Fold:
Amino acid sequence: MAALDADAAEAPWDAQPERREADVSQALHGQRLDKVVVTMADEFSRNHLQGLIEGGHVRVDGALSISASRKVLAGQRIEVELVPTAESRAFRPEEIPLDIVFEDPQLMVVNKPAGMVVHPAAGNWSGTLLNALLAHHRNAATLPRAGIVHRLDKDTSGLLIVGKTLAATTALVRMIAARDVHRQYLAIAHGELHPVSVRIDAPIGRDPKSRVRMAIVSSGKPAQTDVLVMASGEGLSALRCTLHTGRTHQIRVHLAARGHALVADEVYSGKPALGMTRQALHATRLAFAHPISGEALSFEAAPPPDFALAWRHVADLAR
Structure:
């Protein structure tokens, strides 16, 4: 993978934390330490500043103070080390290897491993595809989401398109919205599906009972998934799924709603099986017209070893 260039090495994410100092005024005599620190750095949330105190980044008269509720006295010297929030530290380059299936000056197609988060979010502020893209090419820092135009769940493996220029990124976003990017997945689900070929057409939205789940809800966005059974036996089915829309957790929700949760998909009550400890879903094929040249492009990625072994087991059952 390409190394960071010299200009990137001087980027603001490598700067030392700012330090601020102030004496407690008579008006703040007897107030909590966190309240005083807020007056020194009101561009940060109180919650973040409380975390700085508890993390040992605040001194009172030269001594560390980790109690946000401590009362301070007029004239005491407060020193604060303004360590950036986790969110602000998230958008920084990290030298993470990428499995690049295709790359030209306009776009990339990446084969994402299971376990990699695509975009930083709470609980996953580093080690993401976005962090890897910022290190891979300089222009990523100038693009919305570093050129990421669609996502895969953390535990889903497979193909993703990434724009490398603003023109290509904008065109790709429009192509996905217009359903001009064709995406196929392989999945292993509990149960034996009948009929063997079906289109699931059901709207998807946030589950009203759980914010970590999606569900089929009447107020949701339209969602269509074509499902084809490739093999089945002993209560398991190997499936090829074609997306016509790209809703969050779409395949997982559509199949679970029919009683066929993906193997090892704990969020939707899928049980581990066949050695799979993450949801049995792999983005295997992408086809689209190059957003700049118009050339027809098609890519396939074989599933990783854990999925391939489980898939072969279901295929053997069918034979």
Q: What stands out?
A: The first strand starts at residue 18 and ends at 23. Confidence is low (pLDDT under 50) at residues 1-14. Residues 305-318 form the longest helix (14 residues). The chain is about 20% helix and 25% strand.
